[in-house]
C-alpha cells in the first residue's frame, strides 16, 4: 500500500520549524519509506537507507542515506541510484492497483521477471523478491493468491528459488484497528517468526534475509499508536540476524511527534 501525500510550501516550512532534525546514530536496518524527501529530512539521522517506490529515488536533503530504487511493476529494466546496489522488485503483486499493488498473478510476475531481471543483474544489481502482503490465502483482493500463497506460486513458477536469484525477500504487514500499539506490536512479532519459517522453507535455506519495507499498526496516522508499536518492534527487529532492513509506513507520519522519537531511540 502506498499513499501519496500532498503538502504546500508553507506546510513544509512549518513542519521543518516544528521538527528539528534528529541526530541519532543510524542502525544498519532502519529505513525511511517516503514520498516527500524534504519533509522527512528530520528523520534521516536515525536511518541508514530509504526508498520512495520509484526507480529513481529522490535524495533526502543533508543526508548520506542509501537510496534503494524500486521496480514497482512489470516493464522496469533500468533503475537509477548512485548509492545502492539493491533493487526492490514489484510492489505487492498480490494486491489490486487501487490498493497500491501491481496486481500480477505468480505466472505473470515470473514472465515479467524473466524480461526485467536480466538487464538489472547485468548492471550488477542485487534483486529483492517482490514485496507481498501478510495474507496467506488462495483468494485475496485480486481474486488470486495473496501473501505467502502468492509467493509460493511465484517460486514454483520459476522452478525454484535458484531461478529467481533473489538476495532477500520483502514483506508488508499492517495491524488490526482497535487494538493498542503494543498489542499490534506483539501481533507483528508473531508474524515475523512465522514469516521467517515460511520464507526459509520456500527458499530452501536458513535465515534467508527479510526486508520489512512496509510495517504499520492501524490507524496508520496515529502517532501515539505508532510510537507504542515501535517501542515493541524496533528492539525486536534489531535483535534478529535474519531481518536485514525495515521501514515503518510511512516516514511522513513520524515527523515531529512521539513516533519519530521512538523510531530514533529517544522514547
Automatic annotation (TrEMBL):
Positions of the Asl1-like glycosyl hydrolase catalytic domain: 31-255
Signal keyword on record: yes
Alphabetical keyword list: Signal
Signal peptide: 1-18
GO process terms (BP): fungal-type cell wall polysaccharide metabolic process
InterPro entries membership: ASL1, Asl1_glyco_hydro_catalytic, GH
Single GO cellular component term: fungal-type cell wall
Protein name: Asl1-like glycosyl hydrolase catalytic domain-containing protein
Native species: Phyllachora maydis
Taxonomic classification: Eukaryota, Fungi, Dikarya, Ascomycota, Pezizomycotina
Amino acid at each position: 500500500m502506498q499513499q501519496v501525500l500532498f503538502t504546500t510550501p508553507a506546510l513544509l516550512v512549518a513542519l521543518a520549524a516544528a521538527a528539528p532534525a534528529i541526530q541519532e546514530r543510524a542502525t544498519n536496518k532502519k529505513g525511511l519509506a517516503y514520498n516527500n524527501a524534504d519533509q522527512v529530512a528530520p528523520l534521516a539521522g536515525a536511518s541508514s537507507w530509504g526508498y520512495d517506490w520509484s526507480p529513481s529515488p529522490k535524495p533526502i536533503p543533508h543526508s548520506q542515506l542509501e537510496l534503494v530504487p524500486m521496480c514497482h511493476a512489470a516493464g522496469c529494466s533500468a533503475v537509477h541510484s548512485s548509492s545502492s546496489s539493491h533493487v526492490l522488485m514489484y510492489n505487492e503483486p498480490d494486491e489490486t492497483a487501487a490498493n497500491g499493488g501491481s496486481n500480477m498473478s505468480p505466472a505473470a510476475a515470473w514472465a515479467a521477471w524473466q524480461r526485467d531481471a536480466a538487464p538489472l543483474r547485468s548492471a550488477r544489481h542485487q534483486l529483492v523478491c517482490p514485496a507481498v502482503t501478510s495474507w496467506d490465502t488462495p483468494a485475496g483482493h485480486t481474486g488470486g493468491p495473496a501473501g505467502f500463497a502468492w509467493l509460493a506460486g511465484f517460486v514454483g513458477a520459476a522452478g525454484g528459488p535458484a531461478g529467481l536469484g533473489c538476495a532477500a525477500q520483502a514483506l508488508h504487514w499492517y495491524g488490526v484497528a482497535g487494538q493498542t500499539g503494543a498489542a499490534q506490536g506483539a501481533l507483528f512479532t508473531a508474524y515475523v517468526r512465522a514469516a521467517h519459517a515460511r520464507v526459509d522453507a520456500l527458499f530452501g535455506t536458513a535465515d534467508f534475509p527479510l526486508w520489512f519495507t512496509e510495517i504499520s499498526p492501524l490507524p496508520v496516522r496515529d502517532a501515539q499508536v505508532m510510537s507504542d508499536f515501535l517501542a515493541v518492534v524496533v528492539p525486536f527487529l534489531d535483535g534478529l540476524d535474519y531481518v536485514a532492513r525495515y521501514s515503518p509506513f510511512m516516514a511522513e507520519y513520524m515527523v515531529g511527534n512521539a513516533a519519530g522519537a521512538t523510531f530514533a531511540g529517544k522514547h
